[in-house]
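anyone else get weird line breaks when pasting these?? whatever heres mine. first is seq + tokens for prot A
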Amino acid sequence: MTDPGTLSPAELVDRVSLQDRGWAAAVCAPGSVGTLVSELQDEFEGAVDDGVKTEVVSGRGGAFRLVAKLLSMPSDSVALVRDIDDLKEEDWRHLDSSRNALMSVRRVVLVLAEQTVQSMAGLAPNLWSWIGPRVWGLDEHAGELSVDARIASLRSAFDLTDDQVVAMAEAGTLRPDPALAEWLVLLGRGDLVGR
């Protein structure tokens, strides 16, 4: 089970989509921001009602441009904000003083590094008080079951070893069961399914 503070991109999209004012912050490793922004964009476009535009917004131009861009977006769009890890102190203060105006923007996900969360909390306390309960670690592998864990659960459930399952499949004596077929596939022996 994943840490409740860490979500997969799909889980984050679900949580943001279910809220009327779905502002959130997704915390990830600095090197994975671009990949995760793309994955979030794909997830939003697949999960949110048809016709909703997802737009990636950069904070590179500073807080004044960022606020203007967010306020000009259509009300049913989703903004994925990246490139805010290098904002200066005055940028954070401007974002903080713009909080009430920004509340009109329905769905925004700030994708940032962990140290940026600390900057937001210290330099933009009003913004932080609003977003703080919806700050989650973002892990593209969160919620995935590992192959080893699944095979271990199959061994326990059937009281068999991997070798026994493969031998029965090769002999044609393995009973037809989707879980046993899955086991063979996980072992890299999908060629034995249905023998």
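and prot B, same format (seq, then tokens)
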Amino acid sequence: MKKIYTIFTSIFISTICFSGYGWGNTSSMSYKIGVVDYLSVFQNVPQGKITLDKLKNSLEPKINKLKEESDSLSLKMKNLKKNAFTLSKKEHELQVLSINNEKKKFQKKVIQLRENEIKKERSAAKNFEISMQKAINQIVKSEKYTIILNKQAVPYFSHNLDITNQVIDIMKKI
């Protein structure tokens, strides 16, 4: 997503720079620029909530299972520490080895869940971005914008360039 913002910014800057140097007939062109706050759109449209709910619902059971495993592992470590003086050296070593193996398996599961979560977040973000792009394209076509920038990629802009609310209104209808 940052690459897209960089590309937009580069296009915008190069267009402005080249327009003053007589490269083509761009100096007579007028530009209509809009700015969108992607985060605000995400937070204020139903698609954003739906996206978050889907992620939460798909990951919550797995997270709960890992939490149970973590609690079980903690209890085993606590019991081992409590009973360490009553165990033979061999029994103690076997339990430590068993707990360490469980820790490794648990850590692998946590890493696997995190990787799965990242994949799902990327997929959800892509789907959301597609629907947001459709809304932006509607505005671009109807109001003849030359370029739309992400608010986070622009250090300053006049608030009359902000089309965030228009995007939100369109996405609420989709």
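btw re prot B: Residues 10-25 have pLDDT under 50 and may be disordered. The first strand starts at residue 33 and ends at 36.
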